[in-house]
Specification:
By secondary structure, this protein is α+β, with helices and mostly antiparallel strands. The protein has helices spanning 7-11, 63-75, 81-84, 98-110, 133-144, 162-165, and strands spanning 15-28, 43-44, 47-48, 53-55, 113-123, 151-156, 169-180.
């Protein structure tokens, strides 16, 4: 049996994959919404969607940016979004989730990697995402400094089943594939 890779060898793998997940309860939009009040405006990848309900969360509740952030961090076995941006830190109340994604992207580059591609699935009963997918892809790509052809966003419903199907929650899965930069042979992860 071959020996297990050393920490150095495993940290410098040419490809790394990470999975991110987020779930938010949806409640009627409350313009005063803070971390303990009704829903915020529904945003996915920074794109505002017309909806009578929005996410309850400490930041702006952008579940798509949150899941991608965790996918990037997870690919490099780094701390997750909740550890880096805790919900008990008042500076994160209402914070734009693009800040979280940009920090994860900065860490990816600092570790000597780049995003090869991102694949996301948003599970939401309403609104339907078809008309917004291109804008979401462009927003994610711009935040990561990559081409939109390396980003995919799919929308799925839950066919009326459980909290998501009843319009009381949103769920997002994201997978990120990272590749080591050619000039980063010894870059620490």
């Amino acid at each position: 049996m071959p020996p297990a890779p050393t920490d150095h060898a495993s940290r410098n793998a040419d490809l790394r994959i990470g999975h991110g997940y987020d779930l938010h309860r949806l409640e009627p939009v409350d313009p005063r919404a803070g971390s303990n009040r009704g829903g915020r405006v529904l945003k996915l990848a920074g794109i505002e969607l017309e909806s009578p309900v929005g996410p309850v969360g400490h930041s702006d509740g952008d579940a798509l940016f949150h899941a991608i952030t965790d996918a990037l961090l997870g690919a490099l076995a780094m701390e997750d979004i909740g550890t880096l941006f805790p919900d008990d830190d008042e500076s994160n109340d209402g914070r734009d989730s693009i800040d979280f994604l940009r920090e994860a992207s900065r860490r990816v580059k600092g570790a000597g990697y780049e995003v090869a591609n991102i694949d996301c699935t948003v599970i939401l009963e309403r609104p339907r995402l078809k008309a917004h997918r291109a804008a979401m892809r462009d927003s994610i790509a711009a935040a990561l400094g990559i081409g939109a052809d390396r980003v995919n966003v799919k929308g799925k419903s839950h066919e009326g089943v459980d909290a998501i199907g009843e319009g009381r929650a949103i769920e997002v899965h994201a997978v990120a594939l990272l590749k080591r930069l050619p000039d980063a042979e010894g870059a620490p992860a």
